[in-house]
Amino acid sequence: MTKQKYSVDFKKMIVKLYQDGTPVADLTNEYGVANVTIYKWINLYKEEKGSGTSKADVLTLQKRLNQLEGENDILKSLNHIRKKVSSDDWQAAIDTNLKQHSIKETCKVLLVPRSTYYEQQKDHVSLQAERRKTLSQSIKRIYFTHRQVYGTPKILKELHKEGKIVSINLVQRLMRRLALKSITRRKWRYQQVNDLDNLDYPNILSQDFSTTAPNQKWCADITYIHTKADGWCYLSIVQDLYSRKIIAHKLNDCQSCERHFTTSF
């Protein structure tokens, strides 16, 4: 049920009828207003003897006085503002007075529409946001300069060397926002794949690498190479000892000898 609202003139009319001698019960029956509400209006709008003012008049004046005092405080705090100012000036002035005065009050004093203030706020970059943007760029530069190995503590140390005052918590938040993580590489260790290492192989060449024709003697070797895309890869080659040419090779991500030499040709 929607609460009915009455104008000030209507309220004063009811109070005048009461003062002229009309009982409250008759006013309630005729105008459909609760007797409690009528008594409240009587107490509010009844003029005091001698002064000719009512409590409502006093409350109105008090409200207006508080409004003028607030506007005066705003103008005192903005005494450096002149007729011609930039949008940054009055935006900073409004932000400075947010704790004491609302945006509505300050915009009214400055004759600036609130819609204009909110529209400018969309494009306004705070000093804190600008500082974090600069720090983010520095963190990315240090991170990629050191091959993505540096984590939060080392990046923080580099920032301090550059004279930037920043906490480790802020560096952690910015790195998390930039999706930067320290890439840790485990030290490579040989792992035995099968029992081939335990077997004894006959020394056929007996360190005699001399040849008189092609394809008399071959030798093979395998080495590992680190790549950016696939990590550690293994290169196997087969060489003809007569011509010294590589007659076969294979690059694989597995160090299994069987896989390498069965697929080299």
Description:
With 265 residues, the chain is mainly alpha-helical. Helix content is 48%, strand content 10%. It is built from 11 helices and 3 strands; from the N terminus they run ααααααααααβββα. It has a 3-stranded antiparallel beta sheet. The chain is rod-shaped, with a radius of gyration of 44 Å.
Order of helices and strands: HHHHHHHHHHEEEH
Instruction: Write down the overall geometry.
Output: rod-shaped
Q: How do the strands line up in the largest sheet? A: 1-2-3
Determine Rg (CA atoms, Å). Answer: 44 Å
What gap, in angstroms, lies between the N and C termini?
91 Å
Unreliable runs, pLDDT <50, ≥5 residues?
Answer: none
The whole-number mean of residue pLDDT values reads 76
Beta strand %: 5-15%
Q: Count of helical segments? A: 11
Q: Given the helix and strand composition, which structural class is it?
A: mainly alpha
Helix content: 40-55%
Largest sheet: 3 strands, antiparallel
User: What is the tally of beta strands?
Assistant: 3
How are the secondary structure elements laid out?
Layout: H1 8-19, H2 24-31, H3 35-45, H4 55-77, H5 87-96, H6 103-110, H7 114-123, H8 127-145, H9 152-161, H10 168-178, E1 218-227, E2 231-240, E3 246-252, H11 257-262
Antiparallel strand pairs: 1-2, 2-3
Helix pairs in contact: 1-3, 4-6, 8-10, 9-10
Briefly summarize what is shown.
Helix content is 48%, strand content 10%. The protein has 265 residues and is mostly helical. A hairpin with a 5-residue loop joins strand 2 and strand 3 (246-252).
